[in-house]
Automatic annotation (TrEMBL):
InterPro entries: DinB/YfiT-like, MDMPI_metal-binding. Residues 11-156 form the Mycothiol-dependent maleylpyruvate isomerase metal-binding domain. The lineage of its organism: Bacteria, Bacillati, Actinomycetota, Actinomycetes, Micromonosporales. This is Mycothiol-dependent maleylpyruvate isomerase metal-binding domain-containing protein. It comes from Micromonospora solifontis. It comes from the Bacteria.
Amino acid sequence: MTFRGQHLALAQAYDGITRVVGGLDDTDLQRPTRCRGWLIADLLFHVLCDAQRALVALASPAEGPADVDDVSYWRAFAGGAGDAGARHAWWARRSAAAFDRPSGVVRIWTDTAPAAVRAAGAADPDGYVTTQGHVLRVPDFLATLTTEAVIHHLDLIVDLPDAPAPGAAATAVAVTTVDGLLSDDTVRPAGWDDAEYLLKAAGRLPLTERERRDLGEAAGWFPLLG
């Protein structure tokens, strides 16, 4: 995908989250998500931290070469983050709870997400950034942000049946990432649509016995990213 395509996909991913949370009241922002222990406001705070991380990274160009790309970046997060992930989950929940009202997180998100998208559009397509201890090409960095946003969009709407799904361009980036984490010989089960594929890959939905048989050895790699 071109740099412009990656930028548009990120814009669609972040706008999709805004469309989910923008109309929710404080009660709805306390609905559950697919992320254990996190309400919608808690998970939104976590995604807000991603947008803030994007602003910092994009404003701080790094020297190349890259040590990971948009696919290999996720291998460090396969199967979850263990104790570090549990500590971050607890921190994010307490941080979100520090707002007077859950809608306070939404207000900061709606300011920060568009700013991150604008910074992404102004970045050098041939440049590099550093984040999470890695150096990535700018387009690959945008793809990692999009993939995480799409999966968390699906997490956010588990208790919101009327909420919009992630956009097609953003979803395509996330699906391409997951495809890259599988071997070339692995065939995606025919019954999975994109959303189910992403939820299975992220460990949000368990594999059935039939799916394990269909996937063969690759079933042991799931979840592919946390």
